[in-house]
Amino acid sequence: MGRLTGRDPSLLRRINSTVVLRTLRGSATSSPLTLTELVHATELSRPTVEGVVEGLIESGLVAEAEDEPAHIRGSARRGRPARRFRFRAEAGHLLGVEIGPHRVAAVLSDLTGRITGSVAREVQETATAEERLDRARGTVAELLRRTDVARDALRAVGVGTPGIVEADGTVRLGTALPGWTGLPLGERLRRSFRCPVLVENDANAGVLAEHWKGAARGVDDVVMVLAGLSPGAGSLIGGRLHRGFGGAAGEIGALHLLGREATPERLLSTTDEPLHPLDEAAVARVFAQAKGGDERARRAMDRFVARLVHDVAALVLALDPELLVVGGWASGLDGVLDPLRGELERYCLRPPRVALSLLGDTAVATGALRLALDHVEGELFTVETAAAV
Fold first, then answer.
1. What is the SS3 assignment for the chain?
2. Which of 54, 104, 205, 328 supports an S-S bond with 160, CB 3.0-4.6 Å?
3. How far apart are CA 123 and CA 129, in angstroms?
4. Are strands 323-327 and 353-356 parallel, antiparallel or unpaired?
5. CA distances in angstroms from 7 to 4, 12, 168, 358, 384, listed in the order given
6. Edge-to-edge strand list for the sheet holding 353-356
7. Beta bridge pairs of residue 222
8. CB–CB of 233/203 below 8 Å?
9. Lowest model confidence (mean pLDDT) among 26-35, 70-79, 174-183, 313-322
10. Roughly how many angstroms between the first and final C-alpha of the chain, as a whole number?
11. Residue 371 CB neighbours (<10 A)
12. Global pTM?
């Protein structure tokens, strides 16, 4: 620290600014803090905290809170109340977007991640890439209009979509959506925003969401499976998203290519004709029929679960997660859990706990929002990028 204080005062100012801002943001859901409370919480000197707070006020990230009414302060307290300061969660907004086979959804939040609005719209599974992008732009525009948020108030946008996604947001392979393979999705969407746009695989976004707000809270080693005709999985290892070298980790929907003749859409068919590869609504109907006692649907569901277990067991054996979360586009997934648990006990050396997604069809958009929040937190709370005070 001697070298920092003697030779790099700007770095020390950034460190102090980051510490104070993090402390104020941590109190955003409770109550504003006085200078004395900030000094105590940060262990910085009072003059340092005063200077940092004034700089953060000028930057728009911190504001002085309004005085508490006398009946709240207590009649015994006399004189001018101490100044209190709060993190301005409203200083910017974050956006999470899902672009899927059957729907486009968008969620908006403040800088703490508190969701302030959402809109979802259906889209045809056969829609072209341009039609799907237009629906996404329209959904976002509707959400911003409903919440009265200006587009230039967005600090970051996260996007979740099926396929193998490269670091720049290009979809290297995306068989679930027409025209998606090779689409420079990140580049196309950045034309609509003046902030960073981060694109991620939908299963990866889903596991981030479940870890943040869903069934995997407090669990750092978790696999989430989006169960459908082309299942995919997202994994957290030690609390960090595992994408793999080329972003293709978890593409268990491709395992049927390893010498298996029966595709998932044929396994789930209750007729002699296979389901359409993108018709997830048909999956929901089969699950509902099986739950209602239809024998052919029950056999189809049993075939599907058996295949899903083999696919998931490969990941479980490789990663040894504490928890397996099952979600996806199809409804009625609760009927899959018990058979899945039983089969995993047969195949796995240490079967994980199995739970149904708590977020349902909002998981991907919520995970995309988490991507945006992680990006902004990195800007605000990483010393290298913190604004100098």
1. CHHHHHHCHHHHHHHHHHHHHHHHHHCCCCCCEEHHHHHHHHCCCHHHHHHHHHHHHHHCCEEECCCCCHHHHCCCCCCCCCCEEEECHHHCEEEEEEECCCEEEEEEECCCCCEEEEEEEECCCCCCHHHHHHHHHHHHHHHHHHHCCCHHHEEEEEEEECCEECCCCCEEECCCCCCCCCCCHHHHHHCCCCCCEEEEEHHHHHHHHHHHHCCCCCCCCEEEEECCCCCEEEEEECCEECCCCCCCCCCHHHHHHCCCCCCHHHHCCCCCCCCCCCCHHHHHHHHHHHHCCCHHHHHHHHHHHHHHHHHHHHHHHHHCCCEEEEECCCCCCHHHHHHHHHHHHHHCCCCCEEEECCCHHHHHHHHHHHHHHHHHHHHHHCCCCCCCC
2. 205
3. 11
4. parallel
5. 6, 10, 37, 51, 16
6. 240-241, 232-237, 222-226, 323-327, 353-356
7. 236, 323
8. yes
9. 70-79
10. 18
11. 25
12. 0.87
Contact 119, 57 (CB under 8 A): no
- Which tens digit of pLDDT belongs to each residue from 226-262? 887 677 899 999 999 999 988 888 887 776 555 555 6
Answer with the residue of higher pLDDT: 127 or 279. 127
Q: Which of 125-139, 146-160, 309-323 has the lowest mean pLDDT?
A: 309-323
Pairing of strands 93-99, 154-161: parallel
Tokens of 101: 């086979």
Task: State pLDDT tens for residues 268-302.
Answer: 778 777 776 666 677 778 878 888 888 988 888 88
Q: Which amino acid is at 85?
A: F
Tell me how crowded residue 106 is: count the other CB atoms within 10 A of its CB.
27
